[in-house]
Amino acid sequence: MAHDSHAGHVDAEHEYINPESGSGHEHTDANVSLIVQFGLWLAVAAILTHIGVWFLFGLFVDQREQASVPEYPLAVGVERRLPAGPRLQQFPANEIYQFRLQEGAVLDSYAWIDKSAGTVRIPVSEAMRLTIERGLPSRTAPEAGTVTETPGLMPTDASAGRTMERRRQ
Predict the structure, then answer these.
(1) CA pair distance 137, 161, nearest whole angstrom
(2) Lowest mean pLDDT among 31-40, 76-85, 123-132
(3) CB environment 107-130: b (16+ within 10 A), e (fewer)
(4) What is the pTM of this model?
(5) Are 45 and 38 in contact (CB under 8 A)?
(6) Which residues contact 166 (CB under 8 A, 6 or more apart)?
(7) Residue-range domain boundaries for the chain
(8) Is residue 9 scored above 50 in pLDDT?
(9) How far apart, in whole angstroms, are the C-alpha atoms of residue 154 and residue 141?
(10) How far is CA 88 from CA 82, 97, 141, in A?
(11) Over the stretch 107-144, which tens digit does the pLDDT of each residue have?
């Protein structure tokens, strides 16, 4: 008798059907009960891990509260000190607004700078108006023939105060 490669199967379409189970699924399918079992064990392991971490966290908190040695020994007996130097601003927008209001109040108000000398601060707009009315101070032009510098020497822009001989023309 010749060996039939499709023994027990009507055609190639029914080759992977398991005739013993009668369920009609392929015998190459995954084992569903094994997958469900793995999922259950994975869920149990995740729950036990979370419970263990929760108890461990509680243990660490208790140990920290019972510690007799302070965590920062240099800070013992010192009330909350702020560090020296520049610190971060808590509300920069509010602080710049307050700063501008204070500066505006200073620029737009009258106040004594030195009462004994008679020096006062006046608003900027008032100072500008008075400057336009009175004019700026200026030097008087030297009279003809008056020598104001050392003869023959002339400072230049790049000389940093040193003098050079005046060129003859």
Answers:
(1) 25
(2) 76-85
(3) eeeeeeeeeeeeeeeeeeeeeeee
(4) 0.32
(5) no
(6) 152, 153, 154
(7) 16-66, 92-134
(8) yes
(9) 18
(10) 11, 17, 56
(11) 999 999 888 998 999 999 999 999 999 988 887 776 76
